[in-house]
């Protein structure tokens, strides 16, 4: 089990890849088979009976099948349970390997938003029921192989700098800010810069300058002289 972000409050893509082995190459996984991933607690992603999967495939090379779970799963945010069902008329054959064993590789990927509080890694477990073949799967993912969903705290912004083009009293000046967010800021997110007072400007909307202006809605910011607050809203190109 791997993830793309271990920072809290960020978008995180989880990818589960597992191999199922059987002593016979005649076995197969078909309709009615159910797999669950439990322990995915503490996320900020709402429950959905049609939760979108980024990847759901099985097999190898020329025998790879996609859409084995129909591209969706049943997601329960409160319990941290993701339920996957093999779609009707979909049979996943095993691949014969050395020693008379047969195996199949399943891969599932989905995107959630991490929770707001850092914590130790939860206990994540894979369970499966394959009624046609009469076997079940119960596999806990040891923490040494995956620390997924153990969010760590981090500064919201790195490399924050501020500079002014003119330090002389009563004269115009260009104020520049630079910062790098540690998470993706979606369109509509607002950033407030406080303490820019006293200045002569009155409350209102002002245009931004510089290459980064295109990232903010209207290429502008709103200034409030009470507290000297500049408010920026991330635009579609942010």
Descriptive report:
Strand 8 and strand 9 (81-85) form a beta hairpin. The radius of gyration is 25 Å and the shape is elongated. The protein starts with a strand and ends in a 5-residue tail after the last strand. The chain has strands at 2-3, 11-22, 28-29, 34-38, 48-52, 55-58, 65-66, 72-76, 81-85, 92-93, 95-96, 102-113, 124-130, 135-141, 157-164, 175-181, 190-193, 204-207, 220-224, 229-233. The chain is mainly beta and 238 residues long. Strands 1, 2, 6, 7, 11 and 12 form a six-stranded antiparallel β-sheet that branches. Strands 5-8-9-4-13-14 form a six-stranded antiparallel β-sheet, with no helix packed on it. A four-stranded antiparallel β-sheet has the order 17-20-19-18, with no helix packed on it.
- The global form is elongated
Low-confidence stretches: none
How many helices in DSSP terms? 0
Annotation, overall tally of beta strands: 20
Task: Briefly note the structural class of the backbone.
Answer: mainly beta
Topology readout:
Elements (H helix, E strand, L loop, with lengths): L1 E2 L7 E12 L5 E2 L4 E5 L9 E5 L2 E4 L6 E2 L5 E5 L4 E5 L6 E2 L1 E2 L5 E12 L10 E7 L4 E7 L15 E8 L10 E7 L8 E4 L10 E4 L12 E5 L4 E5 L5
Antiparallel strand pairs: 1-2, 2-12, 3-10, 4-9, 4-13, 5-8, 6-7, 6-12, 8-9, 11-12, 13-14, 15-16, 17-20, 18-19, 19-20
């Amino acid at each position: 089990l791997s993830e793309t972000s271990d920072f809290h409050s960020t978008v995180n893509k989880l990818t589960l890849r597992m191999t199922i082995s059987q002593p016979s190459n005649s076995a197969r996984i078909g309709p009615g088979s159910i797999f669950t991933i439990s322990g995915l607690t503490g996320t900020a992603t709402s429950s959905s009976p049609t939760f979108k999967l980024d990847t759901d495939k099985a097999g190898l090379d020329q025998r790879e099948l996609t859409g084995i779970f129909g591209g969706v799963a049943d997601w329960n945010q409160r319990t941290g349970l993701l339920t996957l069902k093999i779609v009707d008329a979909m049979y996943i054959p095993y691949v014969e390997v050395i020693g008379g064993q047969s195996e199949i590789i399943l891969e599932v990927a989905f995107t959630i938003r991490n929770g707001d509080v850092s914590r130790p890694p939860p206990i994540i477990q894979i369970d499966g029921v394959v009624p046609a073949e009469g076997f079940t799967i119960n596999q806990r993912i040891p923490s040494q192989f995956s620390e997924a969903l153990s969010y760590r705290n981090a500064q919201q912004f790195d490399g924050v700098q501020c500079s002014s083009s003119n330090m002389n009293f009563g004269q115009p000046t260009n104020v520049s800010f630079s910062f790098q967010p540690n998470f993706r800021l979606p369109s509509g997110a607002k950033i407030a810069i406080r303490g820019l007072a006293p200045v002569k400007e009155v409350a209102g909307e002002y245009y931004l300058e510089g290459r980064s202006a295109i990232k903010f809605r209207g290429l502008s910011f709103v200034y409030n002289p009470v507290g000297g607050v500049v408010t920026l809203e991330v635009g579609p190109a942010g």
